[in-house]
Specification:
Distance between the termini: 177 Å
Oligomer: single chain
Shape: extended
Helix content: 40-55%
Radius of gyration: 40 Å
């Protein structure tokens, strides 16, 4: 019985070993069949996040954008346009409070930090580099701001850091909650830095340049223009052919003997072989040269260059005449139509920068409150009417507001006279209100009404003063009637 059991067990073991060998051979064969022998020579595409750049690509993008801003006229013009329309002439930040201490503290900050110039630099850095870092310092009781170079915001090379990507340290549970910035090897707390990033999603830590999308087209237009210049130079080439009767050897001897390239005139001035831009060719009668000019259609080439310019304009959301600074081919009506998208583009960017400038203002005011330079409360005086119709004043104490009013430069150039006539007609027909008409003209209706009332009162006082008999000159001469007068 035991012998039979042993034989049965041995048979099962042999069958199991055979099955394992078959499985091993099958697995190896299948694996070799599915594997690509040149897999190591391929690069994986589509697996990375296209929304953001790695460290090296971020540096390359920033350096390329800065290089274009310095050397490319169209790139410089585009960045300067946004700089002018966002923080150009007329830009200002007014406090939302009438407290004298707050206004004085803000004006001191504005003057000491040269904010009229620094605001433009904020826009320039953000649009060119894709982001801007502003760091706050306390000098006594005053607030001072300085820029942090974007290329120096990176993870340190000599130490391992956690929860930090490309120099920005975040909350491990919330990527939008920034806790610090690694700047030149030092971790700076997030409450000392304001960071504005553009053209990326909220969960992407570093911004992208406005010029990034048009970089290849700027290079393409430069090459096209350079080729056009070479073609123009080639077309202006003139050849002076000198034909000599005789053999090629005689022609070569004459060309050598008459070479004045290194010869000098009696006054030591150098001879030239031919006028500038003219080539001299010496040959015998048996040889003739015929220059063939390229048969190119200049109009087609012109359209190619304009197509590139249109791609550049579309990439930054501006009309062509703004990118090229050439409105010679546009009339008033067409310019107004093409200006519409640009106005919306500038207004959108103004909204984005409004939040950043508001953060700067709030941080400055809170710093002044912490250092007792600004009171932490505001007293508002409100006129009211009591039961006896006597105007009284009530003081209301409230927390010091940290909001501000931002005024941006005028974006669109309009025909004020035509628009005013149109608004008058609409107001007379009851189609629009005085408030709306004033807003269309860039005026505050309530403020203007108060100023008009004050002017009317001043004029009335002047009229009363002129009609008052007491103001007449009592010493004026009165003409006495002559004796002969009846």
């Amino acid at each position: 019985m035991f012998e039979g059991f042993k034989v049965h067990t041995l048979r099962k073991k042999i069958e199991l070993d055979a099955l394992q060998k078959v499985y091993a051979i099958t697995e190896a064969t299948t694996k070799d069949a599915l594997e690509d022998r040149d897999e190591s020579a391929w690069s994986l595409i589509g697996g990375s996040d296209a929304r953001k750049l790695d460290v090296s690509d971020q540096d390359e993008m920033r350096e390329s954008a800065q290089r274009l801003y310095v050397k490319n006229p169209h790139a410089r013009n585009i960045i300067r346009l946004f700089e002018k329309y966002i923080a150009g002439r007329g830009f200002k930040i007014d406090p939302g409070s009438e407290d004298d201490q707050l206004i004085e503290y803000w004006e001191n900050f504005w003057k000491r930090n040269k904010m009229a110039k620094r605001a433009k630099e904020i826009v320039r850095r953000a649009m060119r580099d894709g982001e801007v870092f502003v760091r706050f310092f306390i000098d006594g009781v005053d607030t001072v701001i300085r820029f942090m170079n974007a290329k120096d915001v990176r993870n340190p090379m000599d130490k391992a850091v956690k929860n930090s990507v490309n120099g920005i340290e975040t909350n491990p549970e919330d990527i939008e909650d920034v806790t610090g910035y690694w700047y030149r090897g030092t971790l700076i707390p997030a409450d000392e830095v304001l960071h504005l990033k553009i053209l990326v999603d909220s969960d992407v830590l570093r911004g992208r340049s406005l010029l990034e999308v048009i970089m290849p087209f700027l290079s393409m237009y430069y090459k096209w223009l350079n080729t056009r210049m070479k073609l123009s130079q080639l077309r202006s080439t003139v050849a002076l052919v000198k034909k000599v009767k005789g053999s090629p050897v005689q022609a070569a001897n004459i060309a050598t003997d008459q070479n004045t390239k290194t010869s000098s005139a009696p006054d030591d001035s150098k001879y030239t072989r031919a006028p500038e831009g003219v080539s001299v060719i010496t040959t015998n009668q048996g040889v003739d040269y015929d220059f063939k000019s390229p048969n190119l259609d200049a109009a087609d080439v012109h359209h190619d260059g304009r197509a590139v310019l249109l791609a550049i304009a579309a990439g930054v959301g501006l009309p062509e005449f703004m990118v090229t600074s050439d409105a010679s081919n546009a009339n008033y009506a067409s310019t107004m139509v093409s200006e519409g998208p640009a106005v919306m583009e500038f207004e959108d960017w103004q909204d984005i920068f409004s939040m950043f400038f508001q953060e700067i203002y709030e941080k400055v005011i809170l710093t002044g409150i912490d250092h007792r330079e600004i009171p932490d409360y505001e007293i508002a005086t409100v006129p009211v009417l009591d039961d006896k119709d006597v105007i009284t004043e009530v003081e209301i104490t409230r927390e010091m507001p940290t909001d501000c009013m931002i005024t941006y430069p005028d974006i669109a150039v309009r025909d004020v006279e035509s628009e005013t006539k149109s608004l008058i007609l609409q107001n007379n027909q009851g189609w629009t209100s005085g408030h709306t008409a004033s807003a269309e003209l860039g005026r505050d209706y309530d403020v203007e009404q108060e100023l008009l009332i004050e002017e009317m009162e001043d004029e009335a006082d002047e009229m009363v003063g002129r009609d008052d008999p007491e103001n007449e000159d009592d010493n004026h001469d009165v003409q006495e009637p002559d004796e002969g007068d009846e």
